[in-house]
Amino acid sequence: MTPTPVIAVFDVGKTNKKLFLFNEDYKIVYEKSARFNETADEDGDPCENIDSLRLSVFDSLREIFKRKEFDVKAVNFSSYGASFVYVDEDGAPLTPLYNYLKTYPDELHKQFYETYGGESTVARQTSSPVLGSLNSGLQLYRLKHEQPEIFSRVKYALHLPQYLSYLISGQMFSDVTSIGCHTSLWDFERNSYHDWVVKEGLDEKLAPVRNADAVMPAAFPGNSYSVGIGLHDSSSALIPYLVSFTEPFVLLSTGTWTITLNPFDHSPLTDEELKNDCLNYIQYKGQPVKASRLFAGYEYEQQVKRIAAHYNQNTAHYRTIRFDADIVAKLLAQETVKKTGATSLQASVFGQRDLSTFANEEEAYHRLMMDIVDQQKISTGYVLKDNSVKRIFVDGGFSKNAVYMHLLAAAFPHTEVSAASMAQATAVGAALAIHKAWNSKPLPHDLLELKFYSVTQGITT
């Protein structure tokens, strides 16, 4: 039997670590999932277990190379951003993989922004909201000022996708999609590292920049295959849509964060947008992508746990709740708080609601989704100011949630809202980025299946 040519893609999320093999038609022919217990850094804060992750990558590849039915042509990586691995001359990590939710010291925060022109100036120039440790550049600044001895031993600070790539290629690079994801490192006006990065000497700790479609020969034993340099997951998830559609669209990528990406809006970010967690990403071809972020997936998980505990249910039960327009109409009629543009994007109203006021769990669940979509309407609205965009594509977890999708369609009645049915868009994006390096066929144009949601059944908002 002739082995099937495939690409192996490691898709590393905060919770699930997945390996996919795609054939030349971008169909999944193998998948494997792993979860690791978190470890703790020197302050006792939870963080990724980098040793478990490294060993899992090696073990998974060894297992794949043993399988005679596959011919691995290339390997690539996508992972969450805002996370640096600090490696020494030998490529060994010098610190834990600090969590991007780790509290940032107030004094260091104040020192940084006072030195470099203030929060609004740095945020505007770097298209990065002021996010503390979520600005990975400030993590590196912190290492320099709090742990100078370790900083002096750092050969390179590698974003997580590029560290994973290094494990297999033996070469260290930076990529534009990771540099451009709310790092506070990149000056979008000048298209280069910001002055503060150079003044602090951090540019010397950042590996040379390569294009997202670059490949290298493999150092890890196996057949003759290519290795991509890895991509930031949100930018990777956008690639299948850029390949499939040329008319302006917005992608709502949903997971722990719901991130609205508009690759057709290149206008500078305003102070208001930056204060409301808008930012610019850099897509794999190097152009900026205006984006807004909402911690909606996390909020959803926390509040579903609360509902489940109240009604003595398993959280999995709520995945199958069907949309009920009558419940929505009833809840809208009961709503005493007038909707305004001042709805908080930090947490949904639902966290303050008394669950005993709902008639049943279906009502409570619909109210949760209504509160989340109220936030989403505001967040997405920041990158939908250009009337040329007529389509919203939703991928990820919420795309499979009928209650969310119907409510989103009602929130944007003049825009076509569709759930994008695509197996693992983030991983496919990483495969597409290096298509020419492993695939003998032309780029496919049937990657996505769309399910359209319209404003029906008398829903009003």
Automatic annotation (TrEMBL):
GO cellular component, one term: cytosol
BP GO terms, sorted: glycerol metabolic process
Family: Belongs to the FGGY kinase family.
Protein name per Swiss-Prot or TrEMBL: Carbohydrate kinase
InterPro entries named among the record's database cross-references: ATPase_NBD (IPR043129), FGGY_C_2 (IPR049382), FGGY_N (IPR018484)
A molecular function GO annotation: glycerol kinase activity
Stored SUPFAM superfamilies: Actin-like ATPase domain
Species in which this protein is naturally found: Mucilaginibacter aquatilis
Keyword flag Transferase: yes
Keyword NADP applies: no
Keywords: Kinase, Transferase
Carbohydrate kinase FGGY C-terminal domain mapped to chain residues: 247-436
Domain Carbohydrate kinase FGGY N-terminal: 7-199
